[in-house]
Amino acid sequence: MDTTARIIEKRDLTDITKLFVVHAPLVVRNAAPGQFVILRVTEHGERIPISITDFSRATGTITIVVQEVGRTTALVNAMQPGEEFLDFVGPLGQEVPLPAEGHAVLIGGGFGTGAVFPLARALRSRGVRVSCIVGARTRGLVILADLLATESDEVHVCTDDGSLGYHGLVTGRLEELLDAGAGFTHCYAVGPMPMMRAVANTTRLRGLPAMVSLDPLMVDGTGMCGGCRVTVGGKTLFACVDGPFFDAHQVDFDEADSRLTIYREQERVACELAGVRR
User: Fold this and answer.
1) What is the SS3 assignment for 268?
2) Is the peptide bond before 99 cis (omega within 30 degrees of 0)?
3) Contact, 42 vs 31, CB < 8 A?
4) β-bridge partners, 36
5) Dihedrals φ, ψ of 69, to 5°?
6) Please, is 267 exposed, middle or buried when counting C-beta atoms within 10 Å of its C-beta (0-12, 13-18, 19+)?
7) What is the 3-class SS of 206-257, one letter each residue?
8) Structure confidence by residue, pLDDT tens digits, 123-139
9) Which residue has the higher pLDDT, 86 or 2?
10) How confident is the model over 172-186, as a mean pLDDT?
């Protein structure tokens, strides 16, 4: 079995967001919707968790989306087809629980949209109706709406500035669709923490079951560092080994927000030393 992880395709989604197709047959063998990989670029570099955007057992490939937010993601996005990752480990995390019937609404915010596609495909294969809501600050930051359309019954694009699609936040469009009788039975959201908190609040008020991916909290990805510790339903869990998907209505978002910013100063210093724009 080939144990390498070689980039075979790279595509620009935005100025700072890249899509990579990686030949990693050992990883793809057991991949499932909702899981992630851990990768490393250099011998002395950090290991970072990245959600799986797509996978194909037939071709032995994993697709990931990487947005440049720090030194390591800048190194990843500088890589080219033909190059290999030093480490590419996975699949990690738990497979997201999906229904066998109903109408699911999948919400992707920013580059979090990359993690929504495998859910859409799996749901459609089960006969579940799928609607997607994709949000970004402006038109140029909307990603993968075309890919989601291939596995969705409908895709709604939202931009904060109104430059494309619905003018406003994803929760605004979600409320409109619910008011119009969309009949959603399940909701899944992946994106920035404020967006997922807003989705949790909106769906709670509407009595709509919802799950969110707490992948923004993950650091080590194996449960050893404790950086992604979070309280869900009064229990202490870890986003990387117990998730990354959790019941949105049970997540302590105050604690999650606090934990998300705990390394902000260190991240700022690392970016300045590497000359990375933030």
Assistant:
1) helix
2) no
3) no
4) 51, 92
5) -125, -10
6) middle
7) HCCCEEEECHHHCCCCCCCCCCCEEEECCEEEEHHHHCCEEEHHHECHHHHH
8) 999 999 999 999 999 99
9) 86
10) 96
Residue 203: closest CA among 246, 158, 248: 248
Closest by CA to 245, choosing from 54, 131, 142, 116, is: 116
Interatomic CA distance for residues 65 and 43, integer angstroms: 22
The count of other CB atoms within 10 Å of the CB of residue 218 is 27
| Helices 193-206 & 170-179 angle (0-180, nearest 10) | 20
| Single pTM value for the model | 0.90
* 64: enclosing H helix or E strand: strand 61-67
* pLDDT one-digit tens code per residue, 21-44: 999 999 999 999 999 999 999 888
**The pLDDT value given to residue 152:** 95
Pick the CATH number of 6-92 from 2.40.30.10, 1.10.10.10, 2.40.50.140, 3.30.2270.10: 2.40.30.10
